[in-house]
Design brief:
Pfam families: Peptidase_S9. Keywords: Acetylation, Hydrolase. With about 625 residues, the chain is α+β, with helices and mostly antiparallel strands. The chain has two domains: about 105-350, 6 Propeller (Neuraminidase); about 360-615, 3-Layer(aba) Sandwich (Rossmann fold). The longest helix is centred in the C-terminal third of the chain and has 23 residues, at about 595-615.
């Protein structure tokens, strides 16, 4: 078999990568200003957004790109982490959106990772959650007037993984999701008075293995109601909790049944409406919930596709980040009552001609224990009826993520070259319920690989895939699963392509940034010293001797999530046992922000697969 890569610079698969993509966020109390993260320059950077005329002004010039930032509630400041070559360790920077002046707000601190940052509704308090190996996880608040900051105020510190918090209207209250009690995979909420952080105001605990996640406080003065979600029923459902009185209102969502997560997206400025997103069977549906009468209104005219985020605008519309399999991510406005499409908010970022995408459909198949696994199947348009196709089996970079019907140049690139492509939502993926998500905890890698093997079986039984030409691929956690499957089920695969992958969980724990160390402890139920057998069993390096198929690895040199040493050890062991392993190291961190670099990676994989197939043919 000879599948020659299409190398022309104007090839449709390359054009899709080069389309402008943007995520946008409105300042909560100044809807004329926003923050946009865009690849307009060819590398993702932060832009100040004049919402009324659509004008963008580039704020960052980082060589490895910048894809995360936060805009203050008044729109006067934008914040981001200034790191080194994408290593996600550095200092928090404040940019004045009027003058473009940049200020390091923690000049005297050692470098750290930023988890989350927010301002209160009146932009008088900045709160930021950071982590480092010396201090674990720390939540600070700072008083602020424009870009002048008061001294840091330590509110909370822990060695346990945490990532979510909310700050009240005036910054006097902070609620944080914690894992400081013995709750298995669960979490609870703790409320602090920022003026007296030693005193806990209240605590909310929904039980063992239950996650409770804060979203936001009401945007009204002296209102201590918190919008949050809990999966105590087995699926996420929203609720409002008054942190001062402990009164709780769980939303009436009976019409949605008992399947699919419901996530709160926004709370209207008058405190009367909640914007909700229901995800079930990979279908995204927006609802508005009226607090006064408990009525759940389905926005029935909402365009189909994937919705990443949404917020109310002052004119009653809803600003949505939306995409489909044939339309790249864009920011659109929907009617707040019906969900009908109104306008594209950033027309200048959408190219006039987008190469046609292939039809993608949702499929399900049983895993080894009978659990149904959902995935997205894409097939080439061909008149060839000769039989099954060479196939790419793709695992997303979770585990706490989900494969959706999104615009995906990587998928389209493979299908343009005649491959079938299946992306699966293995156990651990979100939106399929608490039991599905938590199944992998303390048994990392086992059920995910069971699901991957089940996907292979289904592809062959359906006549879609050639049994001897199925390649594995994935990035981050998906890259980890690629390497693990190649070692644990070595005779099933034609090869594997792993990007920024995990190779050895023990060394990974030793070398990772603190935020990832904390997450590993949550996944495994302890450290490598406490759970040595689990860490060894879950690590791809354990199974190197069993690998049969060739392996291609693309790894970043400055990644603190998947650091260098574990992969260097894996590479050395592969060569020690004379395995067919190629590895390409590139400058950068965990995020792939450079468009041309991403195209280069995809082209490298296409050429590699061609060589593997030609070698097998001879």
């Amino acid at each position: 078999m000879n599948i020659a890569p299409i190398t022309d610079e104007n090839a449709p698969w390359k054009q899709r990568f080069r389309l402008f993509l943007s995520r946008g966020y409105l300042a909560r109390c100044n809807y004329e200003r926003g923050l946009v993260v865009s690849n307009k320059s060819g590398i993702y950077q932060l832009y100040s957004w004049n919402v009324s005329n659509g004008e963008l002004r580039q704020l960052t010039q980082h060589t490895t790109g910048k894809e995360k930032g936060m805009i203050s509630s008044d729109g006067q400041s934008i914040y981001y982490l200034n790191d080194t070559q994408g290593d996600e360790i550095g200092h928090l920077i404040c940019i004045n959106t009027e003058t473009d002046e940049q200020i390091d707000i923690t000049p005297d601190m050692k470098p750290y990772s930023i988890i989350t940052m927010k301002t209160d509704y009146i932009s008088r308090t900045l709160a930021y959650l950071i982590s480092d190996k010396e201090n674990g996880f720390q939540l600070f608040t700072r008083s602020m007037i424009s870009t002048t900051f008061g001294p840091p105020n330590l509110i909370y510190q822990t060695s346990n993984f945490t990532e979510n918090f909310a700050i009240s209207y005036d910054g006097q209250l902070v609620v944080i999701e914690t894992r400081d009690t013995e709750k298995g995979a669960g979490s609870n909420l703790v409320v602090f008075d920022t003026r007296n952080p030693e005193q806990h105001i209240s605590t909310l605990d929904d039980g063992m293995d239950v996650n409770v996640v804060p979203k936001q406080f009401a945007s009204l003065s002296n209102d201590t109601r918190l919008l949050a979600k809990s999966n105590r029923s087995g699926i996420y459902r929203p609720f409002i909790w008054n942190v001062s009185t402990n009164e709780r209102i769980d939303f009436a969502c009976e019409q949605l049944g008992n399947e699919g997560d419901v996530t709160p997206l926004d709370w209207s400025s008058d405190g009367k409406l909640i914007l909700l997103l229901h995800i079930h069977n990979a279908t995204f549906q927006v609802y508005s919930y009226c607090i006064d009468d408990g009525i759940l209104n389905k926005l029935i005219e909402q365009p189909s596709g994937v919705i990443f985020d949404a917020q109310f605008s002052p004119n009653g519309s809803i600003i949505v980040q939306w995409e489909t399999s044939n339309m790249p991510l864009q920011i659109i406005s929907l009617n707040g009552k019906t969900g009908a499409f109104e306008q594209i908010m950033l027309k200048s970022l959408i190219n006039d001609q987008i190469p046609a995408s292939h039809l993608r459909r949702s499929v399900t198949f049983p895993s080894s224990d009978g659990q149904l696994i959902q995935g997205w199947l894409t097939l080439p348009v061909t008149n060839d009826k000769s039989g099954p196709l060479p196939t790419i089996l793709d695992m997303h970079g979770g585990p706490e993520d989900v494969a959706t019907n999104r615009f995906c140049p990587e998928t389209e690139g493979w299908v343009d070259h005649g491959f079938a492509h299946l992306s699966i939502n293995y156990r651990g993926s979100i939106t399929f319920g608490r039991k599905f998500q938590h199944k992998i905890y303390s048994n990392i890698g086992y059920w995910e690989i069971e699901d991957v093997v089940a996907a292979r079986t289904w592809l062959i039984e359906q006549g879609i895939a050639q049994a001897n030409v199925i390649f594995l691929t994935g990035w981050s956690y998906g890259g980890y699963l690629t390497l693990l499957a190649l070692g644990k089920q070595p005779d099933l695969w034609a090869g594997g392509m792993a990007g920024i992958a995990i190779a050895d969980w023990t060394v990974q724990y030793e070398d990772s940034a603190e935020r990832l160390r904390g997450y590993q402890k949550t996944l495994f139920g302890g450290t490598p010293e406490e759970k040595p057998e689990l860490y060894t069993t879950a690590s791809p390096i354990t199974y190197v001797e069993q690998i049969i198929a060739p392996v291609l690895i693309i790894q970043a040199c400055n990644d603190t999530r998947c650091p260098i040493r574990p992969m260097k050890n894996y590479e050395a062991k592969m060569h020690q046992y004379n395995k067919n392993c190629e590895i390409e190291w590139f400058d950068g961190g965990h995020s792939l922000n450079n468009v041309e670099q991403t195209i280069s990676h995809e082209e490298r994989m296409l050429h590699w697969v061609q060589r593997v197939l030609n070698t097998n043919k001879t």
